[in-house]
Fold:
Amino acid sequence: MDTGESVRITLRSIRAHKLRSALTVVGVVIGIASVITFATFGASVEAEIVGDIETSNAGNIYVFGTPSGDDDFDRTLQPVFTEHDIQELEGIAGVQAVLPRGIVQTQSVQHGNQTLARQQVTATRPASFTPGVLVEGRSFETDEEAVVVNERMAGSFSENLTAGERLTMTMPDGSERNVTVVGVVNGTRGEVPVSEFARQPRVYVPIDPFYESVVESPSAGVRQRAYPQVTLVVDPREIPETQSAIQTYLTGASDARSLSADDTELVARSGNDFVEEISDVIERITRFVTGIAVIALVVGAIGIANVMLVSVTERTREIGIMKAVGARNRDVMQVFLVEAALLGTIGSLLGVPLGLLVGYGATRYAEVTFSLAPLWMALAVGVGVLVGVVAGLYPAWRAARVDPIDALRHE
Amino acid sequence: MTEGEPLIAVQSVRVAVSESANTTVRVDGVSKQYDLGGTVTALDDVSLDLSAGSYTAVMGPSGSGKSTLLNLIGGLDTPSSGQVVVNGQDVSAASEAERADIRGTEVGFVFQTFNLMPRLSAVENVALPLVFDDWDRARRRERARSLLSEVGLGDRTDHVPSELSGGQRQRVAIARALSTDPALILADEPTGNVDTETGAQILDLFDDLHAAGNTFLLVTHERHVAERAERIVHVEDGHIQSVEDVSGGEH
Structure:
């Protein structure tokens, strides 16, 4: 029988039971919309975070030590990279800049008559501040009693910090150091890639004269400054080669190797490695949450199956009539499958825009840029139709097997 | 379609038909048992021939097996033993799909309760057998309209059954039965659900259609309805009791 006619018969049947059909469709709409919402939101968050990292950190390689089997970069705070290591790293082909970072302990930071306790103070080189990250002022210079703050730090005081103002840092031994804020930045060159919204308030100081963590360098035989983390800015065209040369140095002759516990792994990771890892994590979360949303879709499918079974029972006599006038079993099956598929399709078509709308609302709420997940959308529509067909299979099969004599007697 | 009996069986049927080309229906030693807890014999070794263009009534009390006979000839059911051949096709040996095709193209049903699709218009109801016979839509509608005019419902084509009177519904059903130009029209108590006057009109329409060359088999328990036919087959307890010739009767 031609599909047009089965669609026509189906539409009449759906129209005859508007409320029932509408409620069934609502079940599918909710299922499809939840899948689309979560998939879209996940894709948006991923695009936002990955976009942040990719734009600022393409040519960065991060060097740190980490306990074996644990790739988590925030457990890396043993100062094992000595000045000797820094010099050796600077000598590797493809390396454009080496930016060591150390942590300076402070009791508090004071501006005007406001004091903030336990602020993060990072010691680094002036090269960390490129014109691209400077919001105002300039970078500090080596040996200067000056600091640079990031925007979150500048905003931490009731009166915003601006370049030229004074800060007082109270050191762990109680001594005070008065410094001038020479610049405000919105990030640093070579910082560990974090997203904008994960950024902490920070004060940056020059290594000289603030950073004092020293160890005896096994190679140089003298006490030198040592840093827990180093970022290398490398030629973006030679990232893989440079990365492997750095890795070779770290695991071979470096001071860091001798100074680290045996189970600590020294790793050189590129920005891309981080991007991949973060994408992977977000994708896994998205898949998990979307998987939960699929439950709603299954419930929708059960709704279709339920309504179709009722429909088969109600229309037993019609099935008998169709069979009496020449319908084969597969014609009867077709009529009911088309009805189920149509309910699924209508549900998908309504569910996709609803899901996108809710997903858009969620991205606005979370303040991330809205990105589409076209694959998930196509999948959701496909699944919606499929759900209808699968849910309709058993009822349609039941319909096809109705005995025409009994059916014609059916009231 | 592809499954079914070996070719030889089909060929033997064709041979049988060519021997008596004038026979539209041949029922040969047909029995039908139902298994309803115990075995119930609805028909027991019944044989009956309907020639092309004939008009036969089957009479009997309820439970006599007359409806079973009609269902077997119409391909709605299969006999437990014996053979039913309709227009050269062995219904008793046909697959389910083949029987569906026979129901659609060789046989037209007219039921006591009309059995129209409630949400389809008159023209769509009449066209329904043509849907399953794979006619295209334009041809279907054209055929259905002309049949509805033939039964006097040319102005009611787009009404759904609930907007039609009982007599009109039965006319739609008759038009539907004619749509595929079947070899045989099977009518099961066609006047059972309408008043006497309307019933008479329906039977008049049958007479006209019979005169136009259609073959009728009509099941009824009313004598005056049965008398419209050329002969009356009396069925009781699953057996044919007698065949009464009433041709050239009062009509």
